[in-house]
Amino acid sequence: MEMLLNPERLKKDVQVTAYKRPIKIAFLISEEESENNHLILDEIFKYSYTCWAGTRFLIIPFGTNNDKNYLEWLSFYDADIVYSYLKLEKEKIEEIEKLNSPGSLLEHKYGNERKFFSVNIPFYSPIGSISTIHSPEIYAFKRSNSTNKIINLITQFSPKSGDRFVTDNFGNRINVNNYLHEVSGFFEVFCLSKERAPDNNNADAKLIESEARILDLLADQEATTVARLANIHSEAFNPIYHDFFSKSFAIVIGSSVQDRISFWNYRHFHNSTYSSLGSLILTEEHFNNDDFLKYLGKYLNNLNFIGEHGHNYVSLYSSTISKTKLKHIKEKLQDFTYNNININSYFSEKIYPNSFFKLNTSLRPQDISKLSISENPANLFTSGPRHLKYLPTNFQSFGSGHFAIECDIDRHNNLSKYSNVIDTWIIPQRAYISKNFGKDFFRISRNKIPTCIIGNIFNPFNRNSNNNEILININLPDDLMVLNTLLSQRNLYNKDDSRYKLDKPRISHISISDKGKNFNGVISLFNHLNIASNFLTNNLWKKVFQDASQRNGKEDYIYTLFMFEKFQQKNKELYISIKNKMNFKNIDESRKYLAACFKDALNILVEYKIFCPIHTWSCEYCGYKNIRTVDSIKLKNNCDICEKTHIIPVGNEFSWDYLLNKFVHKTMVEHCGLPVLWALDYIQNSNTINSFMYLPEVNIFYDYKDLSQLNEIDLLGVYGGVLFAGEAKRSADYFFENDREKSKFLDVIQQINPDEAFLIFEQYSEDPLNVEPTKKNMVRFKDEFNSKFNNIILKIITFEDFLNRNHSVVDYGAQSRYVCAFLDTLE
Question: How far is it, in rounded angstroms, from Cα 220 to Cα 490?
Answer without folding.
Answer: 55
